[in-house]
Inverse folding.
């Protein structure tokens, strides 16, 4: 989107503001579909946690997407958006047996990632088809917080536990209809992905009633110019070919599933905030914006890079800035960043603000959360109102205290 459009939207809807470009979400979806066009049955299940606005879910539903969910609340959002339960997969980690049973009762595909729950669930509901999440122990991803396939990871059933897993399936007589892995975000390398795929294929041969093989996500998107990104065309070509030969060996044509979050929505998002103050110190120039990590926590949480542009003065001479938020704690969006000269009142735009930005926002410092706008067919549509002070107090139960009685000794 262009600076002019974004400024207009900030003017119309007020800042700080999240803007999502529907066309970018659609083109990413089509790109993935196209890369795997040689696979007979492809299923793309959008990972709701990346950006869970119901209008975004509806946009993806219109594209033919299914959903990947990690909580019963996300399942409910999906149902509200009109998704059929069988197009939703539920991949929780460490949730209660009760929640899993509740989701299963809704007709949603269950994906179980530990042997304890698998055994309990299989014993009680042997007829409910279950997918199993395997941990192939592949090290992938640049950030240890979002790399989930390694040996110490809490995710998935370890590939080394396969004999125990098979015994549980046999003893309970449960029906395993899918096999899944999600090795974490930011897999750079197609080779690593294919290696993990081999482990999954090998494991899949032990299960006779499979309907799908789910490779999760891990597609890396670019955050800055010349950034490395997953070569989706190359992955599509190689994995499709391998998947098709696997299906021949398996004896049946299965569905190939993915659950991208970032890949579909990251680059579609723009976060716009006003500069309240430019503060020159002895060591740097701070640009203090009308927002903080309550609205966009990724840089503080795991050092994510978000490209920042001064859309009020895009052609200005570049200077070095530390862009900081108003939260009363260290709250740094970017240090020593080259940005076109900033004046107080200028609007800054953060790129890659579609995934894990609004969905991780909070009310810390008792601040309201921003509005969200979907840019669709040349027009900005409000898809979430800015919160108000009432949203801050809504669930508080306010106690009254009698005036303290002075006690005399
Ligand atoms: C978070 C998550 C995803 C999406 O990951 P991205 O890096 O955003 O594509 C997919 N599957 C599962 C199980 C997840 O937890």
């Amino acid at each position: 989107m262009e600076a002019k459009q974004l400024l207009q939207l900030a003017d119309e809807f007020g800042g700080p503001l999240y803007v999502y470009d529907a066309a970018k979400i659609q083109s990413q979806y089509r790109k993935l579909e196209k890369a795997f066009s040689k696979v007979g049955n492809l299923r793309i299940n959008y990972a709701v946690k990346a950006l869970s606005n119901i209008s975004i879910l509806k946009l993806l539903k219109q594209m033919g997407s299914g959903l990947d969910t990690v909580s019963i609340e996300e399942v409910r959002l999906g149902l509200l958006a009109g998704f059929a339960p069988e197009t939703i997969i539920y991949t929780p980690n460490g949730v209660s047996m009760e929640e899993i049973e509740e989701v299963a009762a809704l007709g949603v595909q269950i994906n179980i990632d530990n042997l304890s729950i698998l055994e309990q669930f299989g014993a009680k509901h042997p007829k409910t088809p279950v997918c199993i999440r395997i941990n192939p122990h592949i090290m992938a991803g640049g950030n240890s917080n979002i790399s989930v396939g390694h040996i110490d990871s809490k995710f998935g059933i370890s590939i080394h536990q396969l004999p125990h897993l098979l015994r549980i399936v046999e003893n309970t007589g449960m029906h395993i209809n899918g096999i899944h892995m999600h090795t974490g975000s930011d897999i750079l390398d197609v080779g690593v992905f294919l290696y993990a795929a081999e482990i999954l294929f090998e494991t899949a041969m032990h299960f006779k009633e499979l309907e799908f093989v789910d490779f999760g996500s891990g597609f890396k998107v670019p955050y800055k110019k010349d950034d490395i990104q997953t070569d989706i065309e190359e992955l599509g070509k190689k994995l499709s070919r391998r998947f098709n030969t696997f299906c021949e060996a398996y004896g049946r044509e299965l569905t190939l599933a993915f659950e991208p979050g970032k890949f579909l929505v990251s680059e579609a998002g723009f976060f716009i905030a006003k500069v309240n103050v430019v503060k020159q110190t002895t060591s740097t120039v701070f640009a203090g914006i009308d927002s903080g990590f309550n609205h966009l926590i990724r840089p503080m949480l795991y050092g994510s890079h978000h490209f920042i542009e001064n859309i009020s003065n895009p052609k200005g001479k570049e200077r070095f800035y530390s862009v900081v938020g108003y939260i009363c704690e260290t709250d740094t969006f970017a240090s020593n960043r080259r940005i076109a000269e900033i004046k107080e009142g200028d609007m800054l735009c953060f790129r890659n603000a579609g995934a894990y930005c609004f969905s991780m926002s909070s009310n810390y410092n008792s601040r309201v959360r921003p509005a969200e706008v979907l840019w669709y067919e040349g027009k900005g549509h409000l898809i979430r109102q800015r919160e108000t002070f009432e949203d801050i107090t809504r669930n508080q139960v306010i106690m009254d205290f009698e005036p303290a009685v002075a006690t005399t000794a």
Notes: The chain has a mean pLDDT of 94. The radius of gyration is 24 Å.
